[in-house]
UniProtKB/TrEMBL annotation:
InterPro entries: Cupredoxin
Name this polypeptide is given: EfeO-type cupredoxin-like domain-containing protein
Lineage: Bacteria, Candidatus Nomuraibacteriota
Species in which this protein is naturally found: Candidatus Nomurabacteria bacterium RIFCSPHIGHO2_12_FULL_37_29
Domain of life of the native organism: Bacteria
Amino acid sequence: MNKTVSIIIILALVVVLGIIFFGGGSDSVSAQNVEIRDGIQYVTVDARGGYFPQTSNAKAGIPTKLIMKTSGTFDCSSALVIKSLNYQNILPQNAETEIDLGVPKAGEPLQGVCGMGMYNFQVRFN
């Protein structure tokens, strides 16, 4: 019995330390998926079993394109809906789909969701 309790405590510590040191999941904010090239801002989001990262921060006031990357995507995250753009499309299974966002305004986030409403992502413009 003492051995079982010890194993449970050790496993719990491993999980807690993993959450502390590795961020606890995919809903973290990322800046590594945003880049500016030739005056155009590109925000890249991976679509496969959800959207990653779930939250991105980008600059407002410059031309912006959303790049949706799929790689063997067969789930509902390939059915992308962006209501504010009146965009609804089935993404290809293995490709990069470019969506023109125009020149976003500060404080007006872009919200994307899968066709079933299970997965979502957001791009915040500052």
